Amino acid sequence: MTDSARQFDAQADRYAASEVHRAGASLPVLLEYAAPRPDDLALDVATGTGNTALALAPLVAEVTGVDLARKMLDHARLRAGAEGHAHARFVEGSAEALPYADRSFTLVTSRHAPHHSFWPRPGGSCAPAGGWCWPTRSAPTPRRAAG
Fold first, then answer.
1. In the chain, N or C terminus with fewer CB closer than 10 Å?
2. 118 within 8 A of 46, measured Cβ to Cβ
3. Taking Cα atoms as reference points, which of 120, 106, 104 lies closest to residue 47?
């Protein structure tokens, strides 16, 4: 387990209860700019407790959340089950070395995470016609760009 995983596992309950993370102002902005489609295969990078992935779940064919922290993922899985999102899955993995082949997804998102010192390589995980979107405090306008 990495130091980052231990740090975020220790905070998992707080993240799960945080309204800013669960439904803050950046979530509807991300959803608007990402423009998820019913046929999208979505990947949420550094998903944490799954808030973005679970917001995408009713809008896409399938969503996968990936994160280093097991306890964060436990919260995401519990909530997915409680909300009936059978097509949402949560996988332990690093944003810096995603455990997926190139072009596995049509939409890649990340929210409340890029400032934690990684920069996902969305073009690699996204299908050619896909897109990626992540709002962050350092970028005033989130974008969806071709993969």
1. N
2. yes
3. 120
